[in-house]
């Protein structure tokens, strides 16, 4: 269950990052509220998952999901550049996440 909460926390990190961008520096109300609510939920789920998953593993997976998710959303929804070097960097992050999960005793 801790891993499910950690993955959901990572997905919520992507959501709050996207809406933070949409909030235009917290100058737009609705995206700002969505940012804050999903940020709190993401941190809460991360905290709960850390009851059983080691800190280094949980934090690495959480930030990795956020980084890859934000990268994908940036390219797919915001028209950000996709090139070979950025794709390779994203692949390396994914490989690191897989290795972190495989090395965890949980």
UniProtKB/TrEMBL annotation:
<keyword id="KW-1003">Cell membrane</keyword>
<feature type="transmembrane region" description="Helical">
    <location>
        <begin position="33"/>
        <end position="50"/>
    </location>
</feature>
<dbReference type="GO" id="GO:0005886">
    <property type="term" value="C:plasma membrane"/>
</dbReference>
<keyword id="KW-0813">Transport</keyword>
<dbReference type="GO" id="GO:1990961">
    <property type="term" value="P:xenobiotic detoxification by transmembrane export across the plasma membrane"/>
</dbReference>
<dbReference type="InterPro" id="IPR000390">
    <property type="entry name" value="Small_drug/metabolite_transptr"/>
</dbReference>
<feature type="transmembrane region" description="Helical">
    <location>
        <begin position="57"/>
        <end position="78"/>
    </location>
</feature>
<dbReference type="InterPro" id="IPR045324">
    <property type="entry name" value="Small_multidrug_res"/>
</dbReference>
<keyword id="KW-0812">Transmembrane</keyword>
<comment type="similarity">
    <text>Belongs to the drug/metabolite transporter (DMT) superfamily. Small multidrug resistance (SMR) (TC 2.A.7.1) family. Gdx/SugE subfamily.</text>
</comment>
<keyword id="KW-1133">Transmembrane helix</keyword>
<feature type="transmembrane region" description="Helical">
    <location>
        <begin position="84"/>
        <end position="102"/>
    </location>
</feature>
<keyword id="KW-0472">Membrane</keyword>
<dbReference type="GO" id="GO:0022857">
    <property type="term" value="F:transmembrane transporter activity"/>
</dbReference>
<dbReference type="InterPro" id="IPR037185">
    <property type="entry name" value="EmrE-like"/>
</dbReference>
<protein>
    <recommendedName>
        <fullName>Guanidinium exporter</fullName>
    </recommendedName>
</protein>
<dbReference type="Pfam" id="PF00893">
    <property type="entry name" value="Multi_Drug_Res"/>
</dbReference>
């Amino acid at each position: 269950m801790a891993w499910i909460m950690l993955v959901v926390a990572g997905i919520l990190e992507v959501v709050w990052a996207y809406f933070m961008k949409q909030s235009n520096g917290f100058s737009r109300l609705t995206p700002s509220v969505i940012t804050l609510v999903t940020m709190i939920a993401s941190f809460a789920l991360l905290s709960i998952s850390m009851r059983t998953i080691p800190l280094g593993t949980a934090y690495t997976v959480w930030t990795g999901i956020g980084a890859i998710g934000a990268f994908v959303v940036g390219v797919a929804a915001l028209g950000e550049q996709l090139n070979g070097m950025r794709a390779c960097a994203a692949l390396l992050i994914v490989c690191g996440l897989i290795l972190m999960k495989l090395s965890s005793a949980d």
